[in-house]
Protein backbone atom coordinates (compact mmCIF):
# COMPACT_ATOMS: atom_id res chain seq x y z
CA UNK A 1 0.00 0.00 0.00
CA UNK A 2 1.28 3.47 -0.88
CA UNK A 3 1.39 5.92 2.02
CA UNK A 4 1.49 9.71 2.11
CA UNK A 5 4.96 11.13 1.50
CA UNK A 6 6.88 12.01 4.66
CA UNK A 7 9.09 15.04 5.18
CA UNK A 8 11.67 12.92 6.99
CA UNK A 9 12.45 9.47 5.63
CA UNK A 10 11.15 6.90 8.13
CA UNK A 11 14.45 5.04 8.00
CA UNK A 12 16.00 7.77 10.17
CA UNK A 13 13.25 7.21 12.73
CA UNK A 14 14.28 3.55 12.80
CA UNK A 15 17.88 4.70 13.34
CA UNK A 16 16.80 6.84 16.31
CA UNK A 17 14.75 4.02 17.84
CA UNK A 18 17.57 1.52 17.38
CA UNK A 19 20.05 3.94 18.96
CA UNK A 20 17.96 4.15 22.14
CA UNK A 21 17.10 0.45 22.36
CA UNK A 22 20.75 -0.55 21.88
CA UNK A 23 21.76 2.05 24.48
CA UNK A 24 19.73 0.56 27.31
CA UNK A 25 20.31 -3.07 26.30
CA UNK A 26 24.08 -3.04 25.95
CA UNK A 27 24.61 -0.27 28.48
CA UNK A 28 22.98 -2.47 31.13
CA UNK A 29 24.75 -5.66 30.03
CA UNK A 30 28.18 -4.05 29.94
CA UNK A 31 27.71 -2.87 33.52
CA UNK A 32 28.03 -6.49 34.65
CA UNK A 33 31.73 -6.06 35.46
CA UNK A 34 30.87 -3.44 38.07
CA UNK A 35 29.07 -6.07 40.13
CA UNK A 36 31.70 -8.86 39.91
CA UNK A 37 33.75 -7.93 42.99
CA UNK A 38 30.77 -6.95 45.22
CA UNK A 39 29.10 -10.29 44.45
CA UNK A 40 32.32 -12.15 45.22
CA UNK A 41 32.74 -10.34 48.55
CA UNK A 42 29.13 -10.70 49.73
CA UNK A 43 28.59 -14.33 48.76
CA UNK A 44 32.19 -15.59 48.88
CA UNK A 45 31.87 -16.80 45.28
CA UNK A 46 34.87 -17.35 43.01
CA UNK A 47 35.34 -15.25 39.88
CA UNK A 48 34.65 -18.31 37.72
CA UNK A 49 31.30 -18.94 39.47
CA UNK A 50 30.28 -15.34 38.79
CA UNK A 51 31.66 -15.38 35.24
CA UNK A 52 29.56 -18.44 34.42
CA UNK A 53 26.43 -16.28 34.71
CA UNK A 54 27.81 -13.93 32.05
CA UNK A 55 28.68 -16.94 29.88
CA UNK A 56 25.15 -18.38 30.18
CA UNK A 57 23.72 -14.94 29.40
CA UNK A 58 25.80 -14.79 26.23
CA UNK A 59 24.85 -18.31 25.10
CA UNK A 60 21.12 -17.67 25.64
CA UNK A 61 21.45 -14.28 23.92
CA UNK A 62 23.12 -15.95 20.95
CA UNK A 63 20.59 -18.77 20.63
CA UNK A 64 17.70 -16.32 20.98
CA UNK A 65 19.20 -14.15 18.24
CA UNK A 66 18.59 -16.93 15.71
CA UNK A 67 14.87 -16.86 16.49
CA UNK A 68 14.76 -13.06 16.66
CA UNK A 69 16.53 -12.76 13.31
CA UNK A 70 14.14 -15.17 11.59
CA UNK A 71 11.13 -13.34 13.02
CA UNK A 72 12.48 -9.98 11.91
CA UNK A 73 12.48 -10.97 8.23
CA UNK A 74 8.69 -11.40 8.45
CA UNK A 75 7.46 -9.13 11.29
CA UNK A 76 7.78 -5.58 12.57
CA UNK A 77 10.57 -5.15 15.14
CA UNK A 78 8.38 -3.52 17.82
CA UNK A 79 6.75 -6.86 18.67
CA UNK A 80 10.13 -8.50 19.24
CA UNK A 81 11.41 -5.51 21.22
CA UNK A 82 8.35 -5.48 23.51
CA UNK A 83 8.92 -9.12 24.42
CA UNK A 84 12.62 -8.48 24.97
CA UNK A 85 12.03 -5.50 27.25
CA UNK A 86 9.74 -7.51 29.51
CA UNK A 87 12.08 -10.51 29.70
CA UNK A 88 15.26 -8.49 30.25
CA UNK A 89 13.66 -6.29 32.91
CA UNK A 90 12.36 -9.36 34.74
CA UNK A 91 15.86 -10.86 34.58
CA UNK A 92 17.55 -7.81 36.10
CA UNK A 93 14.90 -7.42 38.78
CA UNK A 94 15.18 -11.10 39.72
CA UNK A 95 18.99 -10.84 39.78
CA UNK A 96 18.74 -8.05 42.36
CA UNK A 97 17.12 -10.62 44.71
CA UNK A 98 19.51 -13.57 44.26
CA UNK A 99 21.25 -15.43 47.07
CA UNK A 100 22.46 -18.59 45.30
CA UNK A 101 24.48 -19.28 42.13
CA UNK A 102 21.54 -21.16 40.58
CA UNK A 103 19.28 -18.18 41.11
CA UNK A 104 21.95 -16.02 39.49
CA UNK A 105 22.20 -18.32 36.47
CA UNK A 106 18.43 -18.47 35.96
CA UNK A 107 17.78 -14.75 36.42
CA UNK A 108 20.75 -13.08 34.75
CA UNK A 109 21.82 -15.97 32.56
CA UNK A 110 18.48 -17.22 31.23
CA UNK A 111 15.90 -14.42 31.60
CA UNK A 112 18.13 -11.40 30.97
CA UNK A 113 19.95 -13.23 28.17
CA UNK A 114 16.70 -14.11 26.38
CA UNK A 115 15.48 -10.54 26.68
CA UNK A 116 18.77 -9.14 25.39
CA UNK A 117 18.50 -11.22 22.21
CA UNK A 118 15.26 -9.41 21.32
CA UNK A 119 16.80 -5.98 22.02
CA UNK A 120 20.19 -6.54 20.42
CA UNK A 121 22.05 -5.73 17.23
CA UNK A 122 20.39 -8.52 15.25
CA UNK A 123 16.99 -6.87 15.62
CA UNK A 124 18.06 -3.22 15.66
CA UNK A 125 20.93 -3.15 13.16
CA UNK A 126 19.09 -5.47 10.77
CA UNK A 127 16.03 -3.21 10.97
CA UNK A 128 18.19 -0.22 10.04
CA UNK A 129 19.97 -2.17 7.28
CA UNK A 130 16.67 -2.89 5.54
CA UNK A 131 15.94 0.83 5.15
CA UNK A 132 19.27 1.85 3.59
CA UNK A 133 21.65 0.85 0.80
CA UNK A 134 23.77 3.86 -0.22
CA UNK A 135 23.82 5.26 3.32
CA UNK A 136 23.82 1.93 5.12
CA UNK A 137 27.23 2.38 6.75
CA UNK A 138 26.45 5.79 8.21
CA UNK A 139 22.94 4.75 9.29
CA UNK A 140 24.09 1.58 11.07
CA UNK A 141 27.09 3.45 12.47
CA UNK A 142 24.83 6.07 14.05
CA UNK A 143 22.42 3.44 15.40
CA UNK A 144 25.20 1.39 16.99
CA UNK A 145 26.62 4.50 18.64
CA UNK A 146 23.78 3.85 21.08
CA UNK A 147 25.76 0.91 22.48
CA UNK A 148 28.54 3.22 23.60
CA UNK A 149 26.19 6.01 24.63
CA UNK A 150 24.29 3.61 26.88
CA UNK A 151 27.44 2.38 28.57
CA UNK A 152 28.71 5.93 29.08
CA UNK A 153 25.38 6.88 30.65
CA UNK A 154 24.67 3.75 32.67
CA UNK A 155 28.13 2.64 33.89
CA UNK A 156 28.67 5.70 36.13
CA UNK A 157 25.09 5.42 37.40
CA UNK A 158 25.53 1.72 38.20
CA UNK A 159 28.94 2.44 39.78
CA UNK A 160 27.46 5.20 41.95
CA UNK A 161 24.49 3.09 43.08
CA UNK A 162 26.77 0.13 43.76
CA UNK A 163 29.14 2.25 45.87
CA UNK A 164 26.44 4.06 47.88
CA UNK A 165 23.34 1.84 47.91
CA UNK A 166 24.71 -1.60 47.03
CA UNK A 167 24.75 -3.84 43.97
CA UNK A 168 21.09 -4.84 44.37
CA UNK A 169 19.95 -1.23 43.92
CA UNK A 170 22.12 -0.92 40.83
CA UNK A 171 20.56 -3.98 39.17
CA UNK A 172 17.04 -2.88 40.14
CA UNK A 173 17.57 0.52 38.50
CA UNK A 174 18.88 -1.08 35.30
CA UNK A 175 15.84 -3.34 35.06
CA UNK A 176 13.41 -0.44 35.37
CA UNK A 177 15.28 1.59 32.71
CA UNK A 178 15.23 -1.33 30.26
CA UNK A 179 11.51 -1.94 30.74
CA UNK A 180 10.38 1.65 30.27
CA UNK A 181 12.65 2.43 27.34
CA UNK A 182 11.94 -0.81 25.49
CA UNK A 183 8.16 -0.52 25.76
CA UNK A 184 7.87 3.17 24.94
CA UNK A 185 10.54 3.58 22.25
CA UNK A 186 9.99 0.19 20.65
CA UNK A 187 6.29 0.78 20.02
CA UNK A 188 6.63 4.45 19.10
CA UNK A 189 9.49 4.21 16.59
CA UNK A 190 9.98 0.57 15.52
CA UNK A 191 6.60 -0.44 14.10
CA UNK A 192 7.48 -0.79 10.39
CA UNK A 193 9.26 -3.62 8.60
CA UNK A 194 10.97 -2.28 5.44
CA UNK A 195 10.52 0.65 3.01
CA UNK A 196 8.97 -1.37 0.17
CA UNK A 197 6.12 -2.56 2.41
CA UNK A 198 5.15 1.09 2.91
CA UNK A 199 5.48 2.32 -0.67
CA UNK A 200 9.00 3.67 -0.25
CA UNK A 201 12.49 2.86 -1.46
CA UNK A 202 15.72 2.50 0.56
CA UNK A 203 17.54 5.74 1.48
CA UNK A 204 14.34 7.72 0.89
CA UNK A 205 14.71 7.62 -2.90
CA UNK A 206 11.52 8.47 -4.81
CA UNK A 207 9.88 5.64 -6.81
CA UNK A 208 9.84 6.12 -10.57
CA UNK A 209 6.85 7.98 -12.02
CA UNK A 210 3.76 5.79 -12.23
CA UNK A 211 5.33 2.98 -10.19
CA UNK A 212 4.99 1.96 -6.57
CA UNK A 213 7.84 0.37 -4.64
CA UNK A 214 6.89 -3.30 -4.26
CA UNK A 215 7.83 -5.26 -1.15
CA UNK A 216 10.34 -8.02 -1.71
CA UNK A 217 9.11 -11.59 -1.34
CA UNK A 218 11.51 -13.05 1.21
CA UNK A 219 11.65 -16.81 1.42
CA UNK A 220 13.45 -18.72 4.13
CA UNK A 221 17.07 -19.42 3.20
CA UNK A 222 17.86 -23.03 4.16
CA UNK A 223 20.42 -23.20 6.94
CA UNK A 224 22.39 -25.86 5.06
CA UNK A 225 22.85 -23.43 2.16
CA UNK A 226 24.26 -20.82 4.52
CA UNK A 227 26.56 -23.35 6.17
CA UNK A 228 28.04 -24.31 2.80
CA UNK A 229 29.19 -20.73 2.23
CA UNK A 230 32.81 -20.19 3.26
CA UNK A 231 32.17 -16.48 3.78
CA UNK A 232 29.78 -17.33 6.62
CA UNK A 233 32.43 -19.30 8.49
CA UNK A 234 35.13 -16.68 7.95
CA UNK A 235 32.89 -14.02 9.51
CA UNK A 236 31.75 -16.38 12.28
CA UNK A 237 35.32 -17.31 13.24
CA UNK A 238 36.68 -13.77 13.08
CA UNK A 239 33.83 -12.12 14.93
CA UNK A 240 33.42 -14.96 17.43
CA UNK A 241 37.00 -14.85 18.66
CA UNK A 242 37.07 -11.06 18.64
CA UNK A 243 33.90 -10.89 20.75
CA UNK A 244 35.48 -13.45 23.09
CA UNK A 245 38.19 -10.87 23.74
CA UNK A 246 35.67 -8.02 24.05
CA UNK A 247 33.50 -9.77 26.64
CA UNK A 248 36.47 -10.88 28.73
CA UNK A 249 37.49 -7.23 29.02
CA UNK A 250 34.01 -5.87 29.78
CA UNK A 251 33.47 -8.46 32.53
CA UNK A 252 36.94 -8.41 34.12
CA UNK A 253 38.51 -5.00 33.47
CA UNK A 254 36.95 -3.31 36.50
CA UNK A 255 37.97 -6.11 38.86
CA UNK A 256 41.46 -6.11 37.26
CA UNK A 257 41.81 -2.38 37.90
CA UNK A 258 40.62 -2.71 41.49
CA UNK A 259 43.10 -5.55 42.04
CA UNK A 260 45.78 -3.05 40.98
CA UNK A 261 44.63 -0.65 43.72
CA UNK A 262 42.72 1.70 41.43
CA UNK A 263 39.73 3.42 43.06
CA UNK A 264 36.47 1.43 42.48
CA UNK A 265 34.54 4.35 40.96
CA UNK A 266 37.52 5.27 38.76
CA UNK A 267 37.77 1.62 37.72
CA UNK A 268 34.06 1.50 36.84
CA UNK A 269 34.48 4.72 34.87
CA UNK A 270 37.04 2.97 32.62
CA UNK A 271 34.07 1.19 31.01
CA UNK A 272 32.61 4.59 30.25
CA UNK A 273 35.92 5.62 28.67
CA UNK A 274 35.80 2.57 26.39
CA UNK A 275 32.27 3.41 25.40
CA UNK A 276 32.89 7.14 24.95
CA UNK A 277 35.74 6.35 22.56
CA UNK A 278 33.66 3.60 20.95
CA UNK A 279 30.89 6.14 20.37
CA UNK A 280 33.12 7.95 17.88
CA UNK A 281 34.56 4.70 16.55
CA UNK A 282 31.12 3.35 15.68
CA UNK A 283 30.32 6.38 13.56
CA UNK A 284 33.80 6.47 12.02
CA UNK A 285 33.84 2.83 10.94
CA UNK A 286 30.26 3.01 9.63
CA UNK A 287 31.22 6.13 7.65
CA UNK A 288 34.46 4.52 6.45
CA UNK A 289 32.70 1.38 5.22
CA UNK A 290 30.69 3.52 2.76
CA UNK A 291 33.91 4.94 1.33
CA UNK A 292 36.17 1.95 0.81
CA UNK A 293 35.94 -0.66 -1.94
CA UNK A 294 35.20 -3.39 0.59
CA UNK A 295 34.06 -2.93 4.23
CA UNK A 296 36.49 -5.66 5.29
CA UNK A 297 39.28 -3.07 5.15
CA UNK A 298 37.47 -0.92 7.70
CA UNK A 299 37.06 -4.07 9.81
CA UNK A 300 40.79 -4.81 9.61
CA UNK A 301 41.67 -1.30 10.77
CA UNK A 302 39.30 -1.60 13.73
CA UNK A 303 40.78 -4.94 14.86
CA UNK A 304 44.29 -3.54 14.52
CA UNK A 305 43.45 -0.58 16.79
CA UNK A 306 41.71 -2.94 19.22
CA UNK A 307 44.93 -4.97 19.35
CA UNK A 308 46.97 -1.94 20.42
CA UNK A 309 44.42 -1.04 23.06
CA UNK A 310 44.75 -4.55 24.51
CA UNK A 311 48.53 -4.26 24.59
CA UNK A 312 48.19 -1.01 26.55
CA UNK A 313 45.71 -2.62 28.96
CA UNK A 314 48.19 -5.44 29.56
CA UNK A 315 50.66 -2.82 30.84
CA UNK A 316 48.18 -0.57 32.70
CA UNK A 317 49.09 -0.06 36.37
CA UNK A 318 47.62 3.37 37.19
CA UNK A 319 44.43 5.28 36.46
CA UNK A 320 45.82 7.49 33.67
CA UNK A 321 47.32 4.50 31.86
CA UNK A 322 44.08 2.54 32.31
CA UNK A 323 42.11 5.37 30.72
CA UNK A 324 44.57 5.66 27.83
CA UNK A 325 44.25 1.96 27.07
CA UNK A 326 40.46 2.20 27.38
CA UNK A 327 40.35 5.11 24.92
CA UNK A 328 42.41 3.30 22.25
CA UNK A 329 40.67 -0.01 22.88
CA UNK A 330 37.24 1.62 22.74
CA UNK A 331 37.84 3.29 19.38
CA UNK A 332 38.84 -0.06 17.85
CA UNK A 333 35.94 -1.81 19.58
CA UNK A 334 33.69 0.68 17.82
CA UNK A 335 34.17 -1.19 14.54
CA UNK A 336 32.39 -4.37 15.65
CA UNK A 337 28.74 -3.37 15.89
CA UNK A 338 28.41 -1.44 12.61
CA UNK A 339 30.73 -3.54 10.45
CA UNK A 340 29.15 -6.97 10.98
CA UNK A 341 25.67 -6.15 9.58
CA UNK A 342 27.34 -4.17 6.78
CA UNK A 343 29.52 -7.16 5.87
CA UNK A 344 26.55 -9.53 6.03
CA UNK A 345 24.32 -7.27 3.93
CA UNK A 346 27.13 -6.68 1.42
CA UNK A 347 27.87 -10.41 1.07
CA UNK A 348 24.40 -11.96 1.39
CA UNK A 349 21.79 -9.24 0.65
CA UNK A 350 19.73 -6.94 2.87
CA UNK A 351 16.43 -8.87 2.59
CA UNK A 352 17.88 -11.88 4.43
CA UNK A 353 19.96 -9.78 6.82
CA UNK A 354 17.96 -10.73 9.91
CA UNK A 355 18.14 -14.48 9.32
CA UNK A 356 21.84 -14.69 8.50
CA UNK A 357 22.86 -12.10 11.09
CA UNK A 358 20.91 -14.00 13.74
CA UNK A 359 22.55 -17.28 12.82
CA UNK A 360 25.97 -15.64 12.82
CA UNK A 361 25.29 -14.14 16.22
CA UNK A 362 24.79 -17.61 17.68
CA UNK A 363 28.32 -18.62 16.74
CA UNK A 364 29.68 -15.21 17.68
CA UNK A 365 27.96 -15.55 21.04
CA UNK A 366 29.69 -18.83 21.76
CA UNK A 367 32.97 -16.94 21.59
CA UNK A 368 31.52 -14.20 23.76
CA UNK A 369 30.48 -16.79 26.35
CA UNK A 370 33.97 -18.28 26.51
CA UNK A 371 35.65 -14.91 27.18
CA UNK A 372 34.23 -14.13 30.65
CA UNK A 373 34.49 -17.75 31.77
CA UNK A 374 38.07 -18.04 30.55
CA UNK A 375 38.96 -14.87 32.43
CA UNK A 376 37.45 -16.22 35.65
CA UNK A 377 39.23 -19.56 35.34
CA UNK A 378 42.59 -17.90 34.62
CA UNK A 379 42.20 -15.58 37.61
CA UNK A 380 41.23 -18.44 39.94
CA UNK A 381 44.22 -20.49 38.73
CA UNK A 382 46.93 -17.81 38.67
CA UNK A 383 45.53 -15.04 40.89
CA UNK A 384 46.02 -12.57 38.04
CA UNK A 385 44.56 -11.58 34.67
CA UNK A 386 47.97 -11.23 33.00
CA UNK A 387 47.70 -14.46 30.98
CA UNK A 388 44.19 -13.53 29.83
CA UNK A 389 45.47 -10.28 28.30
CA UNK A 390 48.34 -12.18 26.61
CA UNK A 391 45.91 -14.66 25.05
CA UNK A 392 43.75 -11.76 23.87
CA UNK A 393 46.72 -10.09 22.17
CA UNK A 394 47.56 -13.23 20.18
CA UNK A 395 43.92 -13.77 19.14
CA UNK A 396 43.47 -10.20 17.90
CA UNK A 397 46.68 -10.33 15.87
CA UNK A 398 45.43 -13.49 14.13
CA UNK A 399 41.93 -12.11 13.58
CA UNK A 400 43.30 -8.99 11.90
CA UNK A 401 44.91 -11.27 9.32
CA UNK A 402 41.77 -13.44 8.96
CA UNK A 403 39.64 -10.36 8.23
CA UNK A 404 41.63 -9.70 5.06
CA UNK A 405 40.83 -13.17 3.65
CA UNK A 406 37.05 -12.55 3.46
CA UNK A 407 35.85 -12.96 -0.14
CA UNK A 408 33.02 -11.08 -1.85
CA UNK A 409 30.91 -13.68 -3.66
CA UNK A 410 27.24 -13.22 -4.64
CA UNK A 411 24.31 -12.28 -2.36
CA UNK A 412 21.33 -14.57 -1.89
CA UNK A 413 18.36 -13.29 -3.95
CA UNK A 414 15.31 -12.13 -1.98
CA UNK A 415 13.16 -14.82 -3.60
CA UNK A 416 15.68 -17.65 -3.25
Note down, in words, how this protein is organized:
It is a single chain. Helix 10 runs antiparallel to helix 16 (386-403), helix 12 (296-315) packs antiparallel against helix 13 (319-333) and helix 12 packs antiparallel against helix 16 (386-403). The two termini are 24 Å apart. This protein is an all-alpha fold and 416 residues long. The protein has one domain: Growth Hormone, Chain: A (Up-down Bundle). Helix content is 75%, strand content 0%. 59% of the residues are buried.
Number of discrete domains: 1
**Roughly what percent helix?**
over 70%
Helix/sheet category: mainly alpha
CATH top level is Mainly Alpha
CATH homologous superfamily annotation: MFS general substrate transporter like domains
Distance between the termini: 24 Å
Order of helices and strands: HHHHHHHHHHHHHHHH
Characteristics:
mainly alpha, Growth Hormone, Chain: A, 75% helix
Reconstruct the topology from this structure.
Blueprint: H1 10-29, H2 36-43, H3 47-72, H4 77-95, H5 101-119, H6 121-129, H7 136-164, H8 167-189, H9 223-227, H10 230-259, H11 264-289, H12 296-315, H13 319-333, H14 336-348, H15 353-382, H16 386-403
Amino acid sequence: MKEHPEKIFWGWTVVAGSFLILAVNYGARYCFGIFVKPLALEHDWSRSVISLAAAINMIVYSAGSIIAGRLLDHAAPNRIITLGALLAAAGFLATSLISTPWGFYLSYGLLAGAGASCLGVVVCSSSVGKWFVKKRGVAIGIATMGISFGTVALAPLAGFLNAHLGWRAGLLALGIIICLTGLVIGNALMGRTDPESHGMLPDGDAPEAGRIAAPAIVKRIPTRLIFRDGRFWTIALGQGLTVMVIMSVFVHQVAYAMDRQIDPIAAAASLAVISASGFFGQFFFGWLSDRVDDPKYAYFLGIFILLWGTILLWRADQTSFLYLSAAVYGFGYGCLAPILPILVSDRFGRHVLGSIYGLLTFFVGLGGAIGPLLGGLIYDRFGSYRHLWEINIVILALMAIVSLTLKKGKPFPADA
